[in-house]
Amino acid sequence: MSTEVHRRRRRAPRGRGAAPHWLGRLPYAIVLCGVAGGLVLCALDYFRKGSGLMAAAVLFGALARLVLPPSQAGMLETRSRWVDVTTMTVLAVAIATTAAVVPHP
Predict the structure, then answer these.
(1) Which of 16, 19, 33, 35 is deepest in the core (most CB within 10 A)?
(2) Please, what is the average pLDDT of the chain?
(3) Other C-beta atoms within 10 Å of 66: how many?
(4) Looking at residue 99, what is its pLDDT?
(5) Chain centre to alpha carbon of residue 23
(6) CA trace torsion 24, 26, 28, 32 (10° rounding)
């Protein structure tokens, strides 16, 4: 590539108030760890606690997507904001409902 193309592709330096690059991945990592922890609890025969943890993690993801700006939402941002928040909220409610309905052995 020519140097002219490199100059156009070069990003402007971030200002002092800009968030670090890893901060945008933090909400997604929290949701991912919560769901993984819930799956581990379910595998250890703590179905209700595991499902509750998964529902809370997904609900946290919905809240993070609702509150954070697009630059900090990271990988939680896949579609428009209302579609992401609605999808994650419905999924969290479905997981919590399933945990409440399934009878305890």
Answers:
(1) 35
(2) 86
(3) 15
(4) 93
(5) 12
(6) 160
Per-residue pLDDT for 13 more than 60?
A: no
Distance from C-alpha of 91 to C-alpha of 18, rounded to nearest angstrom: 32
What would the mean pLDDT of 30-57 be, rounded to a whole number?
A: 96
Q: Which residues contact 49 (CB under 8 A, 6 or more apart)?
A: 41
According to DSSP H, which parts of 1-105 are helical?
Answer: 3-9, 26-43, 47-67, 70-73, 81-101
Classify the C-alpha dihedral 83-89-95-97 as positive or negative: negative
CB 77 within 8 A of CB 84: yes
Nearest to 93 by CA among 54, 65, 43: 54
